[in-house]
Amino acid sequence: MGVAYDVTKDVKYLSGATTAMGYIFGNNVLENSYVTGYGTNTTQYPHHRYWCPQMKAGWPYAPNGCLSGGPNSDMNDPLIQGAGYKIGELAPMKCYLDKNDAWSVNEITINWNAPLVWMAAFAEEEAPKADSNSTEEPTTDALYGDVDCNGVVDIVDVLTLNQYLTGIAEYLTPNGEKEAQGKINANVDLDDKIDDADAMNILKSLVKLVTLPVKK
Ligand SMILES: [Ca+2]
Ligand SMILES: [Ca+2]
């Protein structure tokens, strides 16, 4: 869906991809985030041969950011079967146990953790831009004109944006750390691109000719 959105820019694909991310991060019937360390209730004991202090004293817990495979209605491992979970009696989304030995529902593997990295990067890159594509008001809090995200709108923001547009600067924000927010803040006319018109409008706002954001 992420690639489909990249190719078509049809927001339904972005919506599908981010909805799936929402499921992973806790918008599910168990209200559990399947990514360790991210959420109110999160997976803590994924099936791993080293991140399992239950197995041997001194071995570490899983670090933050590990994605469990999550619910699996086949429930193949003896631990979840032994816990009284019966195949076919439980809604598929509830077939989950946060135990180290429950390998059929709580495994962490590279083949879904790698896509999580891809999806996290995709969401950070695309979701804020999609907001600015929208005809509705952006939902993300923005300080319009604060291109470099330092909390004030001043001439440095105009210069920063011009340097970015001409390719002199690689990022809008210091080291690109709040770049997605910087792009939202920079798109002061709420259209689908960041360009000279935005820089000009920020400049105009500094001399009180316009108020940001400027609607076309
Ligand atoms: Ca600023
Ligand atoms: Ca713009």
Q: Strand-and-helix sequence, N→C?
A: HHHHHHHH
Envelope shape: elongated
Oligomer: single chain
Helix content: 25-40%
- Largest sheet geometry: none
Q: Compounds present?
A: calcium ion
Cα-atom radius of gyration: 23 Å
* Number of DSSP E strands: 0
The domain count comes to 2
| Residue runs with pLDDT of under 50 for 5 or more positions | 133-139
Which structural category do the helix and sheet elements fall into?
mainly alpha
Query: Which percent band covers the strand fraction?
Result: under 5%
Number of helices: 8
Could you give the distance between the termini? 31 Å
Q: Summarize model confidence as the mean pLDDT.
A: 90
What is the topological layout?
Layout: H1 2-8, H2 11-24, H3 78-82, H4 103-106, H5 110-133, H6 155-165, H7 179-186, H8 196-206
Helix pairs in contact: 2-5, 5-7, 6-8
Could you walk me through the main structural features you see in this protein, from its secondary elements to its overall organization?
The protein starts with a helix and ends in a 10-residue tail after the last helix. It has 216 residues and is mainly alpha-helical. The protein is elongated. It has helices at residues 2-8, 11-24, 78-82, 103-106, 110-133, 155-165, 179-186, 196-206. It folds into two domains: 1-133, no CATH class; 136-206, Dockerin domain (Type 1 dockerin domain, Orthogonal Bundle), CATH 1.10.1330. The model is unreliable at 133-139 (pLDDT under 50). It contains eight helices and no strands. The longest helix is centred in the middle third of the chain and has 24 residues, at 110-133. The structure holds calcium ion (2 copies). One calcium ion (CA) binds at residues 187, 189, 191, 193-195, 197-198. One calcium ion binds at residues 146, 148, 150, 152-154, 156-157.
